[in-house]
Amino acid sequence: MTQREAYDRMRNVRRELDAATFALAHTIRLVSSDLKALQDAGRGGTSPSELARCRDSLEINYILRLFSEFEAAVRSFWVSTVRNSRPGMEVLMNRVADRVQMSPADRVLAHDIREYRNTIIHQNPRALQYTYGDCAKALGKYLRWLPQSW
Amino acid sequence: MANTRITPAMRLARRNDWIARVTSLVNQVKHWSEAEGWKVESHEKEITEDQLGTYRAPELVVQLDDGELNVVPVARDIAGGEGRVDLEAIPTLARVKMLGSDQGWKLFADPNVPLRIDWNRKNFVRLAHDLLS
Predict the structure, then answer these.
(1) Which of residues 117-146 of A touch B (CB under 8 A)?
(2) How many CA atoms lie within 13 A of B112 on its CB side?
(3) Cβ–Cβ below 8 Å for B79 and A143
(4) How far apart are CA B55 and CA B78, in angstroms?
(5) Per-residue pLDDT of chain A (150 residues; tens, 9 = 90+)
(6) pTM of the entire structure?
(7) What is the side-by-side order of every strand in the sheet holding B53-64?
């Protein structure tokens, strides 16, 4: 894998978020103004309130998608350059950070996002502690320390 | 009702006009970047759109001390504008969207907040630093 591929995958997540945001906003407008669209939604097993809930959770869900791409890149680096094992994410991030002599600031920032990811998974928060942009920036800065390819 | 069918000739003209606008933008950014002493790399990106088919458009990578700025054409046919090009920063993954309009390029921060600044060299340089900070 190359560092460029890792960044491209993370950039594509943002484009998917854009598309999903647009599609949901459009659908919600349509369903609220068109009885047939509302009936179609009902037949499809969804309701306006579920669409709104989906919209409200979208950014958080895409933060999870983003983190999974980040994790895939870091694990790929680990397996390719260190050993074929699967440590927990906290340990993995620390081992990789040690190996590439990462700045403490970038390491801490990425751990903050990892912990936020855990909070999302285990506590299902409705409010955003970090925006998608905050998460992308922190995880992107961590990846900068990896070599161009591995 | 008006006939909105797009003929192959119209499609080709739209596509060529879009590629020309992207090329002009990329050349402008390249010129401004080189004037700042930043290294630039030119690439091409393959894009597929329903109306325009598959084509290649120029993209640019600008190397700054803190990272790189990518000038990435996204698509000609987009909601709310006449084509979209993204300025994307690595490693921050920060982004500004540029939407084509009759008055030139309009800049939008996420989530779709217009940046009411002109597209010129001074603002480009400031934006490049902001995206990487």
Answers:
(1) 132-133, 136-137, 139-141, 143-144
(2) 9
(3) no
(4) 16
(5) 999 999 999 999 999 999 999 899 999 999 888 888 888 888 888 889 999 999 999 999 999 999 999 999 999 999 999 999 999 999 999 999 999 999 999 999 999 999 999 999 988 776 778 999 999 999 999 999 999 999
(6) 0.85
(7) B39-49, B53-64, B67-78, B81-90, B95-101, B104-109, B113-115
Which amino acid, B119?
A: W
Test the A interface: residue of B93, B95, B113 with most A CBs within 10 Å: B93
Residue pair B38/B66 in contact (Cβ under 8 Å)? The answer is no
- ipTM beyond 0.95? no
**Helix axis angle, A104-123 to A48-81, nearest 10°:** 140
DSSP A129: S
